[in-house]
Amino acid sequence: MDFAKKVLTAPLGRTYLFSIGQAGYILKSKSGQLLGIDLYLSDSVERIEGHMGYKRMLPKIQGAYDLEFDVVIATHPHRDHFDPDIIPELMANGRTKLFASVDCEKDVKRLEMSNIGITYVKPGDSCTAGDFKLDFINCDHGNGAPDAVGVIVTVDGKRVMEAGDTCLRLDRKEEYLSKGKLDVMIAPINGAYGNMNEQECAELSGTLKPGITIPCHYGMFASHGGNPGKFFDIMREQYPDNKFLIMTQGEMLAL
Fold it and tell me: 54 and 249 in contact (C-beta within 8 Å)?
């Protein structure tokens, strides 16, 4: 079964999370609405950066027109989060809503996209789009993306936090838990470009105690780092009571 069919045929009445790879995820609500976060679906990073450290190492399992999204989120303008080869195509249907960090606006203008359906967001902003309540949170990704955001998505009574590309900030525990206990926490483990490493992601999980922790930001590029096996060992040894899942690309999790 191809990936798009897997998403579309997941039975209504339950909430699902799908992994795209890198930091990309899809949420499907009980009614069938689709939200995509940081969908990297092309080879744009290698094409623009121009060296093999950014060669795509994971297969393309979805094209821009395979699924029609109700909501798309771009947490910051790095090209594996705001994919310039894909975002305009995802928005071409005229109904998808894009929520992008404020520093993505320059890329929207460069791509000559219309601002129709686009909302630029910063930490503290809250928006509702269809079945999805979006609460944007602070993200510490350094000087390379000072306006980056994370997001807490509430859908069907479930709270899913995508921490965004960020270093470990345990001082933001109250902000992360401001909407209530997290059912899912997604956070990076690559330990480069200002992001948490495997140990730090595990520490954040130990602090927030989500229903399940899902590591991300590994496996796509040779230059990005991230060792899910190391994360696996740390979680088992240091946080044995915390449930976690290392998702394969294309995997579906019923929430």
Answer: no
